Amino acid sequence: MKILILHGPNLNLLGTREPEIYGAMTLDDINNKMIELGKELGAEIKCLQSNHEGALIDALQDARTWADGVVFNPGGYTHTSVALRDAISAIVIPVIEVHLSNVYAREEFRHTSLVSAVCKGKVTGFGWRSYDLGLRGLVDIIKV
């Protein structure tokens, strides 16, 4: 089983960016935890981050050729990108949307996700554990 962990814009700043909202863990810390969890769950994990919408679309399209699923934190693109929504819909493999913060406890514009409707599930508000829960859920979906 092969899974892509895909991180959107500004997540490369984790650990220093608004730690009261996003926590103190760095992106490398999260990636290392997901790689280790993947080993426990029998999944090979590849991690990728980009601040560029087109690069995220390219990564999703590429994943359909090698991955069994994707855990995806689209960051701010969650609320703005029809193109990412269309890419998720087009690739056919399951995608789990994750967010570190509870988007529903934040600004009104964060309450709307353009990608949720084409994802198999969504985990929000558990800090780095959102990735953990998303990966566990994705592995269960793939195994069925």
Secondary-structure topology with pairs:
Layout: E1 2-7, H1 19-22, H2 27-41, E2 44-49, H3 53-63, E3 69-73, H4 82-91, E4 95-99, E5 121-124, H5 129-143
Parallel strand pairs: 1-2, 1-3, 3-4, 4-5
Summarize the structure in words.
With 144 residues, the chain is α/β, with parallel strands linked by helices. It has a single domain (2-143), classed as Rossmann fold. The chain is built from five helices and five strands. The protein has helices spanning 19-22, 27-41, 53-63, 82-91, 129-143, and strands at residues 2-7, 44-49, 69-73, 95-99, 121-124. Strands 2-1-3-4-5 form a five-stranded parallel β-sheet, with helices on both faces. It is globular and about 35 Å long. The mean pLDDT is 95.
Let me know the CATH homologous superfamily.
Answer: Dehydroquinase, class II
State the end-to-end distance.
Answer: 13 Å
Helix- and strand-based class? alpha/beta
Query: Architecture in CATH?
Result: 3-Layer(aba) Sandwich
Order of helices and strands: EHHEHEHEEH
Strand content: 15-25%
- Overall pLDDT: 95
Topology-level CATH name? Rossmann fold
Query: How many independent structural domains?
Result: 1
Range of helix content: 25-40%
Order of the strands making up the biggest sheet: 2-1-3-4-5
Poorly predicted runs:
none
Q: Please report the number of helical segments.
A: 5
Sheet of most strands: 5 strands, parallel
Shape: globular
Number of strands: 5
CATH class descriptor name: Alpha Beta
Radius of gyration: 14 Å
